From TrEMBL:
It comes from Yinghuangia soli. The lineage of its organism: Bacteria, Bacillati, Actinomycetota, Actinomycetes, Kitasatosporales. This is DUF4239 domain-containing protein. Keywords: Membrane, Transmembrane, Transmembrane helix. The keyword Membrane applies. Pfam families: Bestrophin-like.
């Protein structure tokens, strides 16, 4: 389905460009080429630059946003693994209980919360699982609380901080107005040549068709990148899956 959408968008851009070239290229002015060349060059440069500027800004911004989201996920997973390791120094009964809750939280993030992130919402179940880790630590008797206990509590507090940072990314999406501006600029890029006099001969139509395909592909690429939580170019839960593998190594 995703491949079909990519192809459809690219073909649609090419079809629009070819149709505009054939339709607008039949006018007498198009055939005579009576416009001032310097003016045409300047106007064309402005139109092309607007599309390049907006699309470049959106691609760079979306890529940086994905990097931030991925970094926050890896930071939380790293601290989870550290908490799991700290819990290994607790008394056996407390160690097993805390580690079990940490594992359950990690699996909930992978299986339940990550699909919910695609809908821009956090999972209440994940919150409950993390709070269960805290409750398990709070239930440790005072006579079994030592340096290892304090280190585990401090590390768990850091998990909460990292989780809040990761969930704050849910509101980070490229502004829709910029995406609309890129579409408008792309349309102008394709319509401008036939509008100002490009003759609708086979060579020119083919060249404009290639340009339309590139514009259509670029618009779809930006659309897929604008939301770091939506497939197919979304950030996945690989950091938390790696944390589960680390837990197995620490047993």
């Amino acid at each position: 389905m995703i491949t079909f959408v990519w192809v459809l968008c690219t073909v649609a851009g090419a079809g629009l460009a070819v149709g505009a070239a054939i339709w607008l290229g039949r006018s007498a002015r198009s055939k005579e080429g009576s416009f001032n060349p310097q003016a045409l060059t300047f106007a064309g440069g402005v139109v092309l630059s607007s599309f390049v500027l907006v699309s470049g800004f959106l691609i760079v911004g979306a890529w940086q946003l994905q990097s931030v989201v991925r970094s926050h996920a890896h930071e939380e997973a790293r601290v989870l693994a550290k908490t799991y390791a700290r819990a290994g120094e607790l008394a056996p009964a407390d160690r097993d209980a805390v580690r079990t809750k940490i594992t359950e939280y990690t699996r909930t993030v992978i299986d339940v919360e990550w699909p919910a992130l695609g809908e821009h919402r956090a999972s209440p179940a994940a919150w409950r699982q993390l709070d269960a880790v805290q409750s398990t630590l709070n239930a440790v008797p005072a006579d079994r609380r030592a340096e290892a206990y304090d280190a585990t509590v401090a590390s768990l507090d850091e998990v909460y901080v990292k989780r809040y940072a990761r969930l704050a990314d849910l509101d980070s999406v490229s502004p829709p107005v910029l995406f609309a501006a890129m579409i408008a600029a792309g349309l102008l890029v394709l319509i401008y040549p036939p509008l100002v006099g490009m003759t609708a001969n086979p060579r020119n139509v083919a060249v404009l068709g290639f340009a339309g395909a590139i514009v259509g592909f670029g618009i779809l690429l930006v659309w897929q990148l604008r939301d770091p939580f939506t497939a197919p170019l979304n950030v996945g839960p690989s950091a938390f899956q790696a944390a589960l593998e680390r837990y197995a190594q620490l047993k």
